[in-house]
Structure formats: structure tokens, C-alpha cells
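Exercise: predict the fold of this chain.
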Amino acid sequence: MSTTPSNELPDTTSVVIVGAGPAGLTAAITLADAGIDFVLLDRLAEGANTSRAAVVHARTLEVLRELGIADELIARGIVVPTFTVHDGGRTLATVRFDGLPTEYPYTLMVPQDTTETVLLDRLRKAGGEVRRPYQVTKIADENNGVTVDYEDGAGAPGTIRADYVIGADGMHSVVREQAGIGFTGDTYPASFVLADVRMDWPIARNEVALHLSPEGVTVVAPLPDDAEPNRYRVVATLDQAPEHPDAADIQSILDARGPGGAVKVREVLWSSRFRVHHRVADHYRAGRVLLAGDAAHVHSPAGGQGMNTGIQDAAFLGPLLVRVIQGEPAAILDAYEATRRPVALGVVAFTDRMTKMATLRPRPARLLRNTVMSLVIRIPAVRNKLAFQLAELANR
């Protein structure tokens, strides 16, 4: 395993994993647990120190339970059993997770940096480590293996040979580009605000609230308080978002789109602006190169399913690679794309529908949407199906 105390890389290894986000860490844990030799490279000098993805769904908790870390993550998060949809002060729909057939009938709100810390601690317990900072510059599938060229933090070049490479290096994946795999899809015209704030908020802290308005869609979800009481995640669409939204920007969004009442943004703890793409890799495998996480799929944050889908990718892929490295036919790796790519396509389609529905602007269309939503959500089968889909339990 990747246990060398220095930062010097070996010349050869069984698997090179590129990218130490949640998907890369999950893949590394499965390999480490099986005693497979691997190297996990990341271009950043340190891991995530901002919350970014903050939703962990039931299916992901089931996966993390198999790795022995679900309980620890739950202890660091906040359990949220209810998802609500609002238009101004009117509640259009309430979806509860507490009837789902799982040990985890809820959404867990926990910042991504916490999730990555728990995963990294688990990897280290298994004898693995992340090598930083290493920028992969080229990969070549040749001579019954993969050659990975890289530069270290000082810009010095190097090469490592591996049997397989997992690209978990994000939307702008070098591994995917070097493997010649297309990334089909498009970009939403609006920009997104992402902020963690401390604020007074009139909706209970056991709800994730989706607010619809002609100005755009806004999601407000509670975060663990830690040292910051009344901490919330705010995600909102804007035609042109500021690069680093401040308290006045978030206050303006919530005044225009929120439920009314006592909404007061006290402090912005962290904020960012981003564009959202909806894309899926044309293939998840090209010979000895495989993709996972955002390198394989990106989509709207509606539903909070991005990081979850990536972790589940890696948890499926890791054991397959273990079996192949231990002597089973490489053809079994075809099951990875056959199983996980349809999941990503489904998530992209689902979140795209949610985003387009939530951002309707013509008044007649919004009135029709609100009326239909209020009626159909009263049907138990509809509520249960939506909860099941959001929780990703169909992906078992």
C-alpha cells in the first residue's frame, strides 16, 4: 500500500488514483483494505478546507457504513428528515424521509471538508496516504500498463507505471482528457451563489427548504453549529452572481425569495460563485483508465446528489479493481460503466428537471407548476417515490 513516509513516489504500483476528493478517497480505502498497492495523487497542497458539498444521502451512508465510518460522520453532522418546497410564504410540498426502507431515513447535512477528513482518517488507519502536491500532466495506456507523467510541487517531472488509473480529478479532469473520453452536455445560463452563513431563519432546523421564485431558485439547509450557532447553507441562482457574495447579497436574495418573517443574515462564513454544468462522460472506461466522481459526471446541485453519486461510483469500482488485480478477467470492469453510467444519466436528468421547474419565470407557468405540485404531492406514492429518488436508494 501507499505507506512510504517520505513524499517520494515509487516507480511502479498497481493503481494510481488521481484526485483526493471524496470519490478518490473512497476508492483508495477499498484498495487499502484489500492490501492492493496504490498511489493517491492530488494537485492541491492540502485537502478541502471549505464546506462545498454538504448533503449526504441515505444510500451514501449505507456505503460508508460498509467502510465503518457512517456513525462517525453522523456524529459530526445534523440529521434532517424533511424536504420542503415553498413559493414565498406558501408551502407547496413536504417530503419526509423517515418512512424510507433504510437504517438512515434522513438527509445528513455535513460540510464536505468534514466528510473528507473522516475519509482521510479512515484511509490512514488502513495504511494509506495522499501524496501532495502532484500535478498529473500526461497518461498513456501502453505496453500492458499505464504510464503517468507528473510534476511535483517544485515543478520537477517524474513518471510512475501502474496497471490501472482511476481519474477522480474533477470536472476538468486531466485523466479524462488524456484518455480521449468525451464529456457530453451543456452549461446552465445562470450562475450560482454558494454560501455558508450564520443567520436568523424562521424555518425549523430539521428541514431543507427549496424556495421557488421568478428571480430564481434558492435552497436553504441547516449545517452543524460547531462554533458557529445558527449556521446554514444557501444555494441560489442569479443571472450574474458576485464573485464573493457578502452578507448584503445573501440578505437581498432571501428578502426577495424567502418565506418572509425574521430573516437576518448575521455573517457570511464562506462564499463562492460558480457555473453549473450538466455533463456525463461518454465512457467510464478506456482500457486501463477509469473515471469516477466529477470526472465522470457533473450536474445541478438541486437534490444535493453530486458528491453522493461520486462516492457510490468509487465504492462500486474499488472492489471490481481488487478482483481484477487478484487475477479475475479484466472484462468484469465493463460492469462498472454498465451499472454506474445509467445512474449518472438518471441523476442528471432528474436534477435538470428540478432546476428547470424551479426556475420558471412566466407567471402562468409558475401558477400551473404550483397547482400541480400541491395536488400530486398529496398522493403517498408520489411522495414516497420522490423521497426514494432523492435518497438515491434506487441505486443499491
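Check your answer against the key: The longest strand covers residues 183-200.
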